[in-house]
């Protein structure tokens, strides 16, 4: 790991000027091949994360006032598993800031909020489980060789 990058994690609604930056980061990481998806539609979706006491939540990592990462807590992220809720979704760290603790800080803070909201688990899907297992996630299901559904168990 490179030198840790000091970040401040905030709710996106606390720094609304960062909404389009966050939307662009998420869109370019996950949505470029989805017909009709755009940075603008993602920015509109992020407006739903408008309070700290309910899902959806959007947390952003800021370094010297600049957005370097984002993560979301949403009700669901897979229509085939509606019973799994909530989901960690759209976790992205800017390419030049990866490997410096930004993603870990975002995930840990998201889990604090999920516990505070009374959730026992947080689910997510990934093609790279190593990062998340280092943070305490466990495999929930592996539907294919290159993809995992995982979860964080939030019990004491």
Give the integer mean of the pLDDT values.
95
Order of helices and strands: EHHEEEHEHEE
The major β-sheet equals: 4 strands, antiparallel
Specify the CATH architecture: 3-Layer(aba) Sandwich
| 3D shape | globular
Which percent range fits the helix content?
25-40%
Main structural class: alpha+beta
Rg, nearest Å: 15 Å
Strand order of the largest sheet: 1-2-3-4
**Intertermini distance:** 29 Å
- The total domain count is 1
Q: Tell me the number of strands.
A: 7
Question: CATH first level: which class?
Answer: Alpha Beta
CATH superfamily: Gcn5-related N-acetyltransferase (GNAT)
Unreliably modeled segments: none
Write the SSE topology.
Blueprint: E1 8-11, H1 19-31, H2 39-46, E2 57-63, E3 66-74, E4 87-93, H3 102-116, E5 121-126, H4 129-134, E6 138-144, E7 147-153
Antiparallel strand pairs: 1-2, 2-3, 3-4, 5-7, 6-7
Verbal overview:
The chain has one domain: Gcn5-related N-acetyltransferase (GNAT) (Aminopeptidase, 3-Layer(aba) Sandwich). It has a four-stranded antiparallel beta sheet, sandwiched between helices. Strands 5-7-6 form a three-stranded antiparallel beta sheet. Helix content is 27%, strand content 30%. The protein is built from four helices and seven strands; from the N terminus they run βααβββαβαββ. It has helices spanning 19-31, 39-46, 102-116, 129-134, and strands at 8-11, 57-63, 66-74, 87-93, 121-126, 138-144, 147-153. The mean pLDDT is 95. The two termini are 29 Å apart. The radius of gyration is 15 Å and the shape is globular. By secondary structure, it is of the alpha+beta class.
């Amino acid at each position: 790991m490179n030198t840790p990058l000091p970040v401040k994690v905030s709710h996106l609604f606390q720094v609304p000027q960062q909404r389009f930056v966050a939307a662009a980061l998420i869109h370019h990481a996950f949505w470029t091949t989805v017909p009709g998806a755009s940075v603008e539609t993602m920015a509109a979706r992020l407006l739903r994360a408008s309070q700290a006491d309910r899902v959806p939540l959007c947390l952003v990592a800021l370094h010297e006032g600049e957005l370097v990462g984002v993560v979301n807590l949403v009700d669901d992220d897979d229509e085939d598993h509606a019973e799994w809720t909530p989901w960690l979704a759209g976790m992205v760290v800017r390419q030049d800031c990866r490997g410096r603790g930004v993603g870990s800080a975002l995930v840990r803070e998201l889990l604090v909020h999920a516990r505070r909201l009374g959730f026992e688990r947080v689910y997510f899907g990934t093609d790279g489980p190593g990062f998340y297992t280092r943070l305490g996630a466990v495999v929930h299901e592996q539907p294919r060789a290159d993809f995992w559904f995982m979860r964080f168990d939030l019990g004491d």
